[in-house]
Amino acid sequence: MSEEEDIDLRSLSDEDLVAQMHDDLYDGLAEEIEEGVEILLERKWPAYKVLTDALVEGMRIVGVDFRDGILFVPEVLMSANAMKAGMAILRPLLAEAGAPRMGKMVIGTVKGDIHDIGKNLVSMMMEGAGFDVIDIGINNPVEAYLEALEEHKPDILGMSALLTTTMPYMKVVIDTLEEKGLRDDYIVMVGGAPLNEEFGEAIGADAYCRDAAVAVEMAKELIARKHNQMGA
Ligand code: B1M
Fold first, then answer.
1. Whose CA is nearest to atom 42 of ligand 1?
2. 2: DSSP letter
3. Measuring from atom 37 of ligand 1, which residue has the nearest CA?
4. Are residue 109 and residue 190 in the same domain, yes or no?
5. Protein residue with least CA distance to atom 57, ligand 1
6. Domain identity same for 212 and 222
7. Is the full-model pTM beyond 0.90?
């Protein structure tokens, strides 16, 4: 029996439990992550705090060791699966706020990029804030974005990229919207770990979003601005 299996998660203080969850995420232990999430919720932790302190922080640590060559793709995939298992429990809770309908967003990760945890988190938080979200998944060529925009007619187009090699593709999508005379029909928001404000501006996005909470705030602000402009 492994050492992890011997640990009674319920006997741990909040602080030790969160530290243990970081270890469990690192080790890709989905069941333990699910249990940890349930325990923190029973202890009246808000869903967003569980998400950020236990899951997102745990994944940050995984990212450091992935970068340093200590962890490899198969291990990180297991961590990602454990993270998703925890997120699945939190999703309905984040959407429970009963928020008024705010608008519609199509979101997807760009071509060549299969990272989807951050995008999924943004989708969850946006849904929780009252947005209808159409998630078109990963590895999206410009045609897939155009098709989804045409079909769903959203207020917002969201794009995610986690690789320095794939983030320039966001400009391909924005330039194509320009060429087709569609750019002004949508608010374009972009995000992902390697991006920054400057990049967002350089490619002609309406907003760069550092994280999911910022994405929600930006979306609300830009939608309000759009409505004001239309009313003026
Ligand atoms: Co990848 N990977 N990965 N990876 N991976 C990174 C991104 C990397 C930084 C790791 C590292 O070296 N430290 C590095 C990129 C280096 C670079 O480009 N400079 C990297 C690499 C190199 C690779 C491969 C090339 C590895 C290889 O094969 N040799 C390969 C590429 C595959 C591909 O896409 N073609 C690869 C593969 C993988 C896995 C499949 C193993 C797995 C992905 C599983 C999955 O997503 N289902 C994986 C993971 C998990 C990571 C790290 C460890 C974690 C990413 C993550 O989920 N973070 C990552 C390290 C890191 O980012 N520090 C890494 C948690 C998530 C909540 O944060 O995604 O940043 P994030 O999302 C945030 C914000 O960025 C923002 O809000 C989110 C929530 O707050 N945001 C948005 C994101 N998208 C948004 C969209 C918006 C708004 C905000 O729209 C409006």
1. 77
2. -
3. 73
4. yes
5. 117
6. yes
7. yes
Clarify whether residues 138 and 226 are in a common domain.
yes
Amino acid present at 72: F
User: Which residues does ligand 1 sit against, CB inside 6 Å?
Assistant: 56, 59, 62-63, 66-67, 73, 76-77, 80, 107, 112-119, 121-122, 158-160, 162-164, 189-194, 209, 211-212, 215
Percent above pLDDT 70 for the chain: 96
Q: Find the CATH number of the domain harbouring 78.
A: 1.10.1240.10
Report the candidate in 26, 16, 51, 24 with the shortest Cα–Cα distance to residue 37. 51
Residue pointed to by tokens 């030790």: 16
Residue 26's pLDDT is what? 97
pLDDT in tens, 49-73: 999 999 989 999 999 999 999 999 9
Is residue 4 scored above 60 in pLDDT?
no
Query: By residue range, what is the domain housing residue 158?
Result: 101-232
Q: How far apart are CA 74 and CA 194, in angstroms?
A: 22
